[in-house]
Amino acid sequence: MEAAEGQRGRDGGGQRRSPLDVIMSQIRRKRSASDRKPLGRFLSRTSERTAIPEDAEPENRGQSPGAAAPVESQRDAGWGRVRVFLQRLGKKADSRSLSLAHCDLTATDLLELASLLQFLPQLEEMDVSWNELIGGGLTTLTSHLQHVGGIRTLKLCSCRLDADDVAALGEALPSVPVLEILDLSWNSSVGGTLQSLLGKLQPSVRELHLVACQLTAADAAALGGLVAVLPKLCVLDVSCNPRLTQEVDAGGFGQLAASLSHAVSLIVLRLQACGLKPDDLEALGASLRCLPSVRQLDLSCNRSVAGGLSGLASHLAHMAHLESLDLHLCRLRRADLEALIQVLPSLTALTALDVSSNKEAGGAVHQLVSVLPLTQMRRLPMSSCRLTEESFTALALVAPYLRSLDVSWCKVVGGRLPLLMDALQPSVVLELRLSSCGLTTDDLRHLADVCRRGSLSSLRVLDLSYNGSVGDAAWAALFAAGGLGSLEEADLSLRPLTSAPCSAWLPALLGALPRMPALARLAMQRWSAGPQEEQQLRFSVKNRNIRLDWDPDGSDWKTSSQEESQAEE
Questions:
Q1: For the region Disordered, what residue ranges are annotated (predicted)?
Q2: How many domains does the chain have?
Q3: Which of 28, 74, 298, 554 is a plausible cystine mate for 270, CB 3.0–4.6 Å?
Q4: Within a domain: residue 444?
């Protein structure tokens, strides 16, 4: 013992050290060891420490301190591996949320991710959407889901899942008994295989998203049998599945529509672009009258319902809590609009009605406004509705209450914009869309005055695209006016196959950028500028991390031309 103490009391050169030196050396060793403890341990355990009371009894009571050390060390090492993996993908580590969408994950990445799930016992959300290379190999991940049994949200959108992936996911679902949100949208091979999955869903599921999955009538029938045994289901989105209603003999959609009457907790139902026909609307309406809890109903882009809205309208009156009704691009006829106008007084909770891209709606604005609960309306888009002077004047009555104002592709707006702008309440509107409205120089000058008064101080989205007749001085006045401090997105693009110089007003725009701190996207397609001006603009937006959509040469004309023709249709 004395020899050992003597050895500890000597320095590296064999010289005996004083007791004070020995004590100071021990202190330094302890501090050094503390400094070497991995930071990940403290980051990963923060939520646990806050969740456990200070007087709680430790789990390892009765055990020696050294017994827990290997476990802690293993956790630290595992969390370190998680951090390294996420950093390589440009993501931040979070013990409760794992967001890996758009990361170009490979099969190798998926294998590594699966091996790391054991170090994420607190995980509640996992999103690996838009990683198409992992399709066909999902079993690698699902075989480890038991390590994250507390997961509540699972998103696998656009991963090119095949039938084997769907089956593997179905087998793994019992290991996540508290799953609330499942999103398999944009996986076209899910259609026809859904039955192997639905029977494994737990009663905890609240949201089911199956957009553009090529669902069949048999899938619709399987969904119908499912909704009755999911007591908490509040969101069902099967949009963009036209095959649901194509196989008439199978009667799949009819079974789904009839079963919806048992979905007593349903709040949101989205059936956009499902190929619905008048008979489908009538069957759907019979169930919806039993669901007063529904707040959002999306039936948009179902062009075959034209002339058959009356079969649904009579049932809408029973939906006392309906807040949003979307019927855009449904080719509504005058009779459809009249049936809708008859039932609107019963929808006392309505705050959003979308009948845009229905040409006949332009002539019914006055009647719509007369029966809508104006003071609570927040959205009433009227783009591509063939507004007349009378209907445009009627729209001004509801404008003071709207959060979103959209009259794009309505030429009657040109020269009459002050009527709409003067009706706005200060700091109320959040979106203003005036694309292809034939705006004049005076219109834009008046818009500049409205900005200067601060009436658009809360505006987040401003779309002035395809208004090439506006003079340079008006563009400059708009940006010099200020008052757009909340603006996040601005679109000033010109029409396809056109071009114009922006040199006259570009300095005003550059000077306005510092006064628009929230701006995240700026579109200026087909405006041209000199090399020095272009360099200055790109430098300014790069410093601000603003996304710039700008193609002065107009090489994007094919895509834009297609979009324009679709809007005009």
A1: 1-75, 547-569
A2: 1
A3: 298
A4: yes
